[in-house]
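Q: What structure does this chain adopt?
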Amino acid sequence: MKSTTTTIIINSPPFGMINGKEGIDLALVCTAFDQNVYLIFSDEGIFHLLNNQNTEYFNDKNHDKLLKAIEFYDIDKIYVEQESLQRHQLVATHLIDKVELTHQLNIAQMCQQSQHVVIF
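A:
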């Protein structure tokens, strides 16, 4: 039975940094140890989720494939902060499938419900 919940917020851009990839890796490790995970992308982190990216710039050729298959790692949803999409003039159709848009208030509630919150 999963008793610990970890919220992972990725707000760093995918290009030129490995923070976002490390956040995704941490999410996978947490699920391997039977933790519930809220995986949230906000600010420039939403650019990890854009459709049809040239992943050679990520230094990780499997980046988009991993995100598209994340549900197989017991992460049911990828959350995207609605306000970040609006700030960057994007809409959900610009993103990979199976993301759920949510507002800052809902993200704050997820953080309050979690035993651990890690920001990348």
